[in-house]
Specification:
Low-confidence stretches: none
CATH class: Mainly Beta
Strand content: 35-45%
Distance between the termini: 69 Å
CATH superfamily: Pleckstrin-homology domain (PH domain)/Phosphotyrosine-binding domain (PTB)
Helix content: 10-25%
Mean pLDDT: 88
CATH topology: PH-domain like
Number of helices: 1
Shape: elongated
Length: about 130
């Protein structure tokens, strides 16, 4: 079983900025079983995290020349565009880690439902007796 801090993949990928010019910015990506961390190229900057519980899918994979372009779609329908060197296969690694995360969550949900169904119902509290007049 994978631990949340285990690094599955680490390396360079590029994220398209949200600015008007939509420039590609180099990031150092660190993929773990529950998130993708993106570290800016400059020193001291804080990483951004994409946690898998907030990701719907990896979409729009396109290979052109030396790059693979892909989009991560979040649960609030935000689309984040990435590109990576064709041989790096970041899109596949993220997709597989996301599927693994979703499968583990589904199994946890099933186990939780089974445990709730198997738990004995709490016994009903006895009703208080009323005093009888003789």
């Amino acid at each position: 079983m994978k631990t949340p801090g285990e690094v599955l993949r680490e390396g360079e990928l590029e994220k398209r900025s949200d600015s008007l010019f939509q420039l590609w910015k180099k990031k150092r990506g660190v993929l773990t079983p529950d998130r993708l961390r993106l570290f800016p190229a400059g020193p001291g900057a804080r990483p951004k995290e994409l946690r898998f519980h907030s990701i719907l899918k990896v979409d729009c994979v396109e290979r052109t020349g030396k790059y693979v372009y892909f989009t991560i779609v979040t649960t609030d329908r935000k689309e984040i565009d990435f590109r990576c060197a064709g041989e790096s296969c970041w899109n596949a690694a993220i997709t597989l880690a996301l599927i693994d995360f979703q499968n583990r969550r589904a199994l946890q949900d099933v186990r939780l439902r089974q445990e709730r169904a198997a738990a004995p119902a709490a016994p009903a509290a006895p009703e208080p007796r009323s005093a009888r007049a003789s």
